[in-house]
Amino acid sequence: MVQLALGLLAISTLAALLALLLEAAHAVLADYGECRISINEGQKELTVQGGGKLLGTLMDQGIFIPSACGGRGSCGLCKVKVLEGGGPILPTETPYMDEKEIAEQVRLSCQVRVRNDLAIHIPEEFFLIKEYAAVVVGLRPLTPNIKEVHLKLVDPPEITFKPGQFIQFQVPAYPGCPEPIYRAYSIASPAGLKNEIKLVITRVERGLATTYIHTMLKEGDPVRVNGPYGDFYLRHSEREMVLIATGSGLAPLMSILHQMADEKINRRATLYFGVRCKADLFYQEEIQALAERIPGLSYIPVLSAPAPEDAWEGETGYVTDAVARQIEDASNMEAYLCGNPLMINAAVEILVSKGLPEDRIFYDKFA
């Protein structure tokens, strides 16, 4: 069994090295010259150097396409229509497409290489996405593995976003990370504070972006972000709300709660926040302050593995277990979920079983 595991590990490592060598060889040897990209039936025309991925090529031209994984082909967000010149759809793209999208020539822009002239179509709102120069004005540990990053915007000095949306954060090249990379992080701060944003970032073991942010980023450092992105935001209705988060998935829900407080939206709402132990709970004072401003808000923290010293008397188990116990009839509710995909899939299943129509369940999966 051990020999089989070692063999699989060796094969995986060899495949990864081969992929890196092929990518390096392509960068050195391939020369596609200048290519033209026609966007939205000629609304915008670009002349670019061929050879790069469409996602990065557009970004270099100031056109930003949503991507939560930084162009690694693992989030499925960077979809555009490639009407001419894109070649056949790749096996790396089809898991993120349905039959309708494939028929409409939708592609993942991080998987399409610019080898010749292209004709593409993107949503008009993508032209409104901007890149921002900012400076780090605060770094606050929220838990042993989660840090709040507070940015002040410099150029442009203000951002307009819907609470619940995210930005892409540029991590510069550093030893171990040979080129700049982008990662997506939800905005936790109120939309009314247009000249600053707060991000909540969980450290990922061997993660290139989070290693830099948690160990190298300092107050006063200049950074670049772009956005806003996403269709996770508060829908206006009078329905009771259920909000469910795990870990740093609390960030966009905090921004939505700030919106409710600022706009005096007094809907009944229950926030379920699932973490492992008491040390992993954060923004507790902020949630209490919001509850005082939103009379209809209830808060239920849930610990999956409370430590003996926690002396915990609240809800335990997975956060979805608490939801299943607490909610009997969800037929007139509206749900907002943010966290890891397993939690969201389980929450959707439970809420649907309680009568909540799936088209009233809104979520943002943190891969």
Explain what you see.
This protein is an alpha/beta fold and 367 residues long. The protein contains eight helices and 17 strands. A hairpin with a 4-residue loop joins β1 (34-39) and β2 (44-49). The chain is globular, with a radius of gyration of 22 Å. Residues 35-126 form the 2Fe-2S ferredoxin-type domain.
Short overview:
With about 375 residues, this protein is of the alpha/beta class.
Order of SSEs, N→C?
HEEHEHEEEEEEEHEEHEHEEHEHE
**Order of neighbouring strands in the sheet with most strands:** 9-8-11-6-7-10
Number of strands: 17
As a percent range, the share of helical residues equals 25-40%
Radius of gyration: 22 Å
The global form is globular
Q: So what's the CATH class of the largest domain?
A: Alpha Beta
Total helical segments: 8
**Biggest sheet record:** 6 strands, antiparallel
Helix-strand makeup class: alpha/beta
Q: What's the oligomerization state?
A: single chain
